[in-house]
TrEMBL record:
PROSITE patterns: HTH_TETR_1, HTH_TETR_2
Domain HTH tetR-type positions: 17-77
Keywords: DNA-binding
Annotated Pfam families: TetR_C_15, TetR_N
Source superkingdom: Bacteria
Protein name: TetR/AcrR family transcriptional regulator
Keyword Thylakoid part of the UniProt annotation: no
Molecular function in Gene Ontology: DNA-binding transcription factor activity; transcription cis-regulatory region binding
DNA-binding region(s), chain positions: 40-59
Entry keyword DNA-binding: yes
Length: 206
């Protein structure tokens, strides 16, 4: 029996990871275009140029694919908001803080339409509640950490309420921004920045 070399194993794993990424990309498109409830594993496989059997080698159902997308979104958001623990945020004016907060959210939403379609709408499936809560808790944690760095003198209980309000502003505006195009989208982004800038500037220092 031929031995499997380490390089062959790495190539096989890389092919598997590439196939998983392709399937998740296809699942995201399917969820966005036909809706999560109407999406099927056959439709997802067809979009990925794979057979249903290939899909089932990696995912037992579309629920598992949505949960894997949640993990991918969480990983990407972790990179986007890695700056929130920077103590130098306390030195920034509210305007610059808003730029560093809003633009990554807009870019992330545009690059990951499935996030809104599956996890940021009123029609989130109940069986994905745990994944949805995990994403929302992470977002709240990052906003809380950002405010802790920006206003280190704020008591934790006050800061957490402020983080909830700030995140609520973002969550209310992002679907409107995502649905808009061109000049209208930029106008809405500018308006959201104005609201966030005023809110951050109004935060007490202690």
């Amino acid at each position: 029996m031929p031995r499997t070399t380490p390089s062959a194993t790495r190539r096989r794993l890389a092919r598997g990871e590439q196939r998983i990424a392709q399937l998740l990309d296809a699942a995201e498109r399917e969820f966005v275009e036909v809706g999560y409830h109407a999406a099927t594993t056959n439709g997802i496989a067809a979009r990925a140029g794979a057979s249903p059997g290939t899909l089932y080698q990696f995912f037992p159902n579309k629920e598992a694919m949505a949960q894997a997308l949640a993990d991918r979104y969480l990983e990407e958001l972790s990179r986007v908001y890695s700056f929130v623990h920077d103590p130098d945020l306390a030195l920034l004016p509210a305007e610059e803080l808003v730029e560093r907060t809003v633009e990554p959210v807009v870019a992330f939403t545009a690059a990951n339409p499935g996030f809104k379609a599956i996890f940021a709408g009123a029609a989130t499936p109940p069986h994905l509640a745990a994944s949805t809560q995990r994403l929302h808790s992470a977002l709240h944690g990052w906003m809380d950490a950002l405010l802790a760095a920006f206003r280190p003198g704020l008591p934790a209980e006050v800061r957490q309420v402020k983080a909830t309000v700030a995140l609520g502003i973002v969550r209310a505006m992002v679907p409107l921004i995502y649905a808009a195009r061109g000049a209208e989208r930029r106008t809405l982004v500018t308006e959201m920045k104005g609201v966030m800038r005023a809110y951050f500037a109004s935060l007490p220092t202690e």
